[in-house]
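Hi R.,

Here's the chain you asked about this morning:
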Amino acid sequence: MEPRNQTDVSEFLLLALTEDQELQPLLFSLFLSIYLVTVLGNLLIILAVSSDPHLHTPMYFFLSNLSFTDICLSTTTLPKMLVNLQAKNQSITYAGCLTQVCFVMIFSTLENFFLGVMAYDRYVAICHPLRYMVIMDAHFCGLLILVSLLVSIVDALLHSLMLLSLSFCTDLEMLYLFCEVFQVIKVACSETLTNNINLIFYS
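And here is the predicted structure, written out as tokens:
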């Protein structure tokens, strides 16, 4: 089977959870409920933190940023999944897939960084309670958020641009509900050693 250049690829096929048409409405309702609960729950956290002056501390600042990132990550994956379930069409365009890969990596990496930053914040609060507000001032908290965002974007762009060099065969089925970098690499026909090495060292 001859590989095709990635510019010839028009779409990928995201395999459904089940082929049973009777379960599709149930799955749609389930994922829609999960999405709405996720978005509304995180919006309530952001609203509570921003409206209460007592919560204007570094810990809650990082928590509200984590909640916003969680909304973004959910919005990157679930709406397309819901559209596919409703339309009974599991395809996603090549450009759409790469865009989804990039944003999933940005927000998932950013969530990990925020969890690390929150752990550091608790470490400073416990080990240096008297100097906590001096160490974790607004400038330093903003810098932590900015550095986390920049590193996440650079990491995601690196992996996404590496995917552009891959060639794909005619079998473009992915055993996943959304485009994810490991799955895209898995369906590639060309050499993926460099991509796999980058995933090991930069993920």
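One quick note: Confidence is low (pLDDT under 50) at residues 1-7.

Cheers,
M.
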